[in-house]
Amino acid sequence: MILNAGTLVTMNDEREVRSEVHVVVEDGEIVAIEDGYASGEDAVDARDEVVIPGLVNCHTHMYALPIRGAPLDAAPESFYEALVDIWWNVDEAFTERDARLSALGSCAEMLESGVTTFCDNYSGPNTLPGGLDAVAEGVAQTPIRGMITFETTARNSEDEAMVGIEENQRFVREGEDDYDRVSGHYCLHTLFTNTRPVVEECVDRATDDDRPIQIHLEEGLVDVHESIAEYGKRPVPALADMGFFDAEVIAAHCVHSTETEIEILADHDVSVAHNPYSNINNAVGIADVETMEANGLTIGIGDDGWDPDMFETMRSAVGIHKLKQNNPSGFDMAKALEWATIGSAEVLGMDDAVGSVEVGKRGDFVTLDLGPNPVLDESAPYYVVSAASRADVTRTIVDGDVVYDPQTGVTGVDDSDLDAVGAASADLWNRL
Predict the structure, then answer these.
(1) What are the tens digits of pLDDT across the range 204-257?
(2) Domains of the chain in sequence order
(3) Which residue of 64, 78, 96, 249 is surrounded by the most CB atoms within 10 Å?
(4) CB environment 334-352: b (16+ within 10 A), e (fewer)
């Protein structure tokens, strides 16, 4: 494939932006980025458009899709009430059909929004063993790249948690080989919904398999309060005492992490999945990303299952961090695009393959029609963050193949598939 780009936002180490260039992709890999436009029957014309790397959603919950619009009676007034009154009921009601179709529908939406790589956390204890196979089937029907895991929890019992750990190891060791673009990892829901033996077992399995563990860390104050009550200290030092950070860790949220805790995370090379849109919706607070960056933590961005439009997630980050500073210039808008591309790729350990447009990386791109205004090299990243949305995505490209455009839709997904997603959601509502 040859991709002619009017403006190319590379997100390479120099954050280079180039005008009037073409990118050559062979066997899914970028082999050249050259000045000027090129012709050929395999040329894609984005000469009047902005091209960015495929977006990377480093923390999502695809099983949240069916709950949009659901007629729920719950009116939670805290994060913990939202878990108890909504999400844990949804978890228990999920079937393998729901797992497969929610994954399929979510992947279609992500591709429509320019996301080419994601990291998901699935929770459906009554679908085990085998729930991750159902999720993987839904993902693999589309051309997206995905890391998937089961969200281990001992909220009902330690035995149930161990079944979750077994599910992750089973998929890592036996299941993922059936898929080209789907891989497994490990996940602990939170510290407060698990126990020391569960944490230690998860670390042992993850380190044996050389896979990361993702955890929701200090998203709500309940995590902090329960840790102090149980262990006499806050979650980060409590987890450190358990040897948790012997594993490669992706910490989602970290909304209530103190400066001292952030220093501990940095000492252990923990990566952070920032979820600003979700933090707004759950009213949990604003993560101290400034201190995280000052300590050298790698930060990416995720939607936490709330909104597949990563452009909205980027703008949420810009808004809350400017508001926190009470300063309209208090946050560099281009930082949000960095988090949504190379930052998230680094969080997932995939920055050697995705997250920027560079020779040697995979041919993952998003082409954007941003309207009639001129696009200047020096302001292009800001223009993307401030103005783009999923409606502006003209193509999503994975490995040099156009896998989404508004006329033909997502490769591998048709109207009957989407009808099935909707029908499964309605059935779930009835069970709830």
Answers:
(1) 999 999 999 999 999 999 999 999 999 999 999 999 999 999 999 999 999 999
(2) 2-53+365-398 (2.30.40.10), 55-347 (3.20.20.140)
(3) 249
(4) bbbbbbbbbbbbbbbbbbe
SS3 301: strand
Q: How far is CA 316 from CA 9, 53, 102, in A?
A: 21, 20, 24
> What is the DSSP code (8-state) at residue 113?
T
Bridge partners (DSSP) listed for residue 397: 365, 402
Quote the percentage of the chain above a pLDDT of 90.
98
Nearest to 4 by CA among 380, 345, 397: 397
Query: Is 193:161 a contact under the CB 8 Å cutoff?
Result: no
3-state percent helix, strand, coil for the chain, nearest multiple of 5: 45, 20, 35
pLDDT tens digits for 381-425?
999 999 999 999 999 999 999 999 999 999 999 999 999 999 999
- Does the global pTM surpass 0.85? yes
Q: Tell me the Cα Rg of the chain.
A: 21
CA distance 21 to 358: 13
d(CA 367, CA 83): 37
Nearest to 17 by CA among 330, 311, 334: 334
The whole-angstrom separation of Cα 199 and Cα 190 is: 10
User: pLDDT at residue 28 above 90?
Assistant: yes
